[in-house]
């Protein structure tokens, strides 16, 4: 398996634009997580899905953030409108039986 | 709610020296515990995990960790550090009622030649 695949690896966008981050989990994994990593706040869990259903989205910072998992092999994290304080590295991870595997991350810069 | 504390933000060791990174968790039942490593610009890689059984677990790259219930700790150790071990290390816990994985704040390891 190629592991968890995230795209794009880097994204630079202007404030106010919509940003969509994509994730393909490892085949057969039943949980998917979105994390945000910044120097100030470390690794924050934004949302996680189990069997494609959102279980806990308490970490989503505000309504500008939304996440979907339309099927077992794809998930998106959308920010609309984006703001400079959203600049961070966003990681997707998938797991089976609690052991999580991470993608390489998407480095988002909002200018 | 469960939480993970890594008291050391930054540790510096000489190459060849032994290493211990501290991790304390707060959780009522027996947790699932993990150590991950993150090299600059990379994602997180699983070093080792503890679910149950033997409290001393072996991981990749020569690392080991010991689960001590009495101290609520899961410290990571390596007998002899290599320069390539310089990275950020994260301890994490999972609630066995869900798959929610919670991370500590990380410990940055610097290795001097």
Mean pLDDT level of chain B: 92
Order of helices and strands of chain A: EEEEEEEEEEE
Q: State the helicity of chain A in percent bands.
A: under 10%
Structural class of the helices, strands and pairings of chain A?
Answer: mainly beta
Radius of gyration of chain A: 13 Å
| Assembly status | heterodimer
Low-confidence stretches of chain B: none
Percentage of β-strand residues of chain B = over 45%
- Looking at the structure, what is the overall shape of chain A? globular
Please report the distance between the alpha carbons of the first and last residues of chain B: 41 Å
Number of helical regions of chain B: 0
Number of distinct helices of chain A: 0
Whole-angstrom Rg of chain B: 13 Å
Total number of strands of chain B: 12
Share in helix of chain B:
under 10%
β-strand percent of chain A reads over 45%
What is the terminal-to-terminal distance of chain A?
A: 36 Å
Helix-and-strand structural type of chain B = mainly beta
Q: Which chain pair shows the most residues in contact?
A: A-B, 22 and 21 residues
Envelope shape of chain B = globular
Contiguous uncertain segments of 5+ residues of chain A = none
Describe the 3D structure:
The complex is a heterodimer of chains A (111) and B (113). Chain A is mainly beta. Chain A is globular, with a radius of gyration of 13 Å. In chain A, strands 2, 4, 5, 6, 9, 10 and 11 form a seven-stranded mixed sheet that branches. In chain A, strands 1-3-8-7 form a four-stranded antiparallel sheet, with no helix packed on it. In chain A, 0% of the residues lie in helices and 59% in strands. The mean pLDDT of chain A is 94. In chain A, a hairpin with a 3-residue loop joins β4 and β5. In chain B, 34% of the residues are buried. Helices cover 0% and strands 52% of the residues of chain B. In chain B, strands 2, 5, 6, 10, 11 and 12 form a six-stranded mixed sheet that branches. A four-stranded antiparallel sheet of chain B has the order 3-9-8-7, with no helix packed on it. Chain B has no helices and twelve strands.
